Amino acid sequence: MSPNVRNARIRIPYRPPAEYDLRITFTRTAGTDGMTQMLIAGGRQFRCEIGGYGNTLSHFENVNGLAGNNNRTTARKEAWLSTGKQHHSLVEVRKDGVKAFFDGQLATEVKTDYAKLSLQKQWDPGDATVLGLGSFFSPMIFHGVELTEISGPGTFTRPK
């Protein structure tokens, strides 16, 4: 479970292959913000957020130096997450782009070579080569994390 703090982060000590699917099952237990996933592709770390900015946006961040509330991946909705309800996220990372699905529906996507994607410092999971999960003043229970390797094997790392 992530705590009720700013930029709560959980490091997943795993370096994924170039192409993979990341499935997360989670429940927000309190708060009004979203769940975030720190991802790796093309040698770049970036994140996908579902229900950020007061539960109104889903996006990839940063894209061309722009935050999630103002880039081409920004998807707006009155409310993405429901507190106390179990949700499902699927992120498909491919060499030519990334797609995020939320509860079975496409939430956002971007065609990219990953050169212009980056991670804000406050979301750094402590290792620029691994995956991570997080939340922002909204505790989350992570029920399941499943990674499907598409383009070959990844590698586990030793916790720091």
Task: Please give a structural write-up.
With 160 residues, the chain is mainly β. The protein has one domain: Jelly Rolls (Sandwich), CATH 2.60.120. The strands form three sheets. It has a six-stranded antiparallel beta sheet. It starts with 7 loop residues before the first strand and ends with a strand.
Write the layout of secondary structure elements.
Blueprint: E1 8-12, E2 14-15, E3 20-28, E4 35-41, E5 44-51, H1 52-55, E6 57-61, E7 75-76, E8 86-94, E9 97-102, E10 105-111, E11 131-135, E12 140-149, E13 155-156
Antiparallel strand pairs: 1-11, 2-13, 3-8, 3-12, 4-5, 4-11, 5-6, 6-7, 8-9, 9-10
What's this, in brief?
This protein is an all-beta fold and 160 residues long. It has one helix at residues 52-55, and strands spanning 8-12, 14-15, 20-28, 35-41, 44-51, 57-61, 75-76, 86-94, 97-102, 105-111, 131-135, 140-149, 155-156.
Provide keyphrases for this structure.
mainly beta, Jelly Rolls, five-stranded antiparallel sheet, 13 strands
What integer is the average pLDDT?
A: 96
Question: Please, what is the oligomeric state?
Answer: single chain
Per the CATH scheme, the topology name is Jelly Rolls
How many DSSP E strands?
13
Categorize the overall geometry: globular
The CATH class label is: Mainly Beta
CATH superfamily: Exo-inulinase, domain 1
CATH architectural group? Sandwich
* Beta-strand percent range: over 45%
Residues in helix, %: under 10%
Give start-end ranges of low-pLDDT stretches: none
Main beta sheet: 6 strands, antiparallel
Radius of gyration: 14 Å
Strand order of the largest sheet: 1-11-4-5-6-7
